[in-house]
Amino acid sequence: MNRSRIIGVATVIVVIVCMMAPTVVLGQTDGPVASGHIIDGDYGYGMPPNASKDGHNVDNLIHILHWFMLALFVAWGIFFVYCLMRFRARAGHRATYDPVKAKVSKYAEIGVAAFEAFLLIGLSMPIWAATKNEPPAKELATHVRVVAEQFQWNFHYPGTDGTFGRTAAAFVDTVDNPLGLDRSDPAAEDDVFATELHLPVNKPVICDLTSKDVIHSFFLPVMRVKQDVIPGMRIPVWFTPVKEGRYEVACAQLCGNNHYSMRAEMVIEDDASFATWLEEVGKVEEFDEDELD
Q1: pTM of the predicted structure, to 2 decimals
Q2: What average pLDDT does this structure show over 220-224?
Q3: Contact at 8 Å (CB) between 66 and 47?
Q4: Which residues contact 181 (CB under 8 A, 6 or more apart)?
Q5: Which pairs with CB-CB distance under 8 Å and at least 24 residues apart come from 129-135?
Q6: Structural domain of residue 15, as residue ranges?
Q7: Are residues 55 and 181 in the same domain?
């Protein structure tokens, strides 16, 4: 076998391996582990489970994009191998340096450009507008402040009055008051702090994101939510959970040497269970304050 044939065969093998490799990476059958618990959902081939009202729109767009990229990859791979074999160095043949005049390649380039424009204008922008331009009404949503720090997620609930208490850096205590909540503020009396994110099902959620130290990334795979969390800024994100279960909250931004451990749990439950949990956590905080006194 001559050198050109060896190159052609090797190229085909590389193309096949590249196409098969993602199936090995995505072939996860069990849910990931966060804080020692198995996360709900069927984690097999493809996308993580979808537990969000608008998640299917994001999934459909991702599927279309990846099928399109696969078609381009296969087509260009075949063409590449064809060129290697068809125009290899052979005895009695000389290279032609005149530019190729072919309409097929021109039409193919126009078709690809038109489809990419459709993906951007016809699919991506409408989906973005539908999910990002109009936040839910605050009076109808569960409102949570999410405060990131190395290497933990903190969740602040406003309590039964629906109003967040005042916070300030002067009140921050890494053990007893990591959010810097001013307990002398009447609005803070019923505020709840937790390291688990509990949310009621089938109700819009607004999360205000901020960071105490470095840039983090708030990542809820099953909600199709990922947003950088930047110190000095309060960035809102919103979504609607539609499936009960225990899911993962991850940090998708390298934030230090223990970045791998910055994980929490998100529990989606019915209204009664959420209200019970909120009341129980509030009672625990009241007990802790009495002990400190």
Answers
A1: 0.73
A2: 91
A3: no
A4: 156, 165, 166, 167, 171, 188, 191, 193
A5: 130/54, 130/57, 131/54, 131/57, 131/58, 135/206, 135/236, 135/238
A6: 3-132
A7: no
Answer yes or no: do 150 and 284 share one domain.
yes
Query: What are the b/e assignments for 116-134, b being 16+ CB within 10 Å?
Result: eeeeeeeeeeeeeeebeee
The stretch 154-174 carries a mean pLDDT of 83
Query: Three-state SS string across 249-280, please?
Result: EEECCCCCCCHHHCEEEEEEECHHHHHHHHHH
Nearest to 181 by CA among 192, 168, 190: 168
Distance CA 83, CA 94 (A): 15
Summarize the confidence of residues 197-226 as an average pLDDT. 92
Q: Could you tell me if 166 and 104 lie in one domain?
A: no
Angle ∠(178,204,130) on CA atoms, nearest 5: 115
Percent of the chain with pLDDT over 70: 81
